[in-house]
Amino acid sequence: MKNDKRELILNAAQELMCKIPDKEISVNLIARTAGIAKGSIYYYFESKDEILDAVVEKCYKNAIH
Length: 65
Known about the structure:
The chain has about 60 residues and is an all-alpha fold.
């Protein structure tokens, strides 16, 4: 279950990164897009930057496999 919510957050952030500039993305927007509470995000990530870094890392791992 823990990884499911983490994946929801990463997928929502990735979707937003494809649509709008990073500076316009907020934790609130990621939470709304993922359909979860903002507080839940901080259980998995410390900041928006950590989320965006995790999205980039996930995409990189998928590209090399």
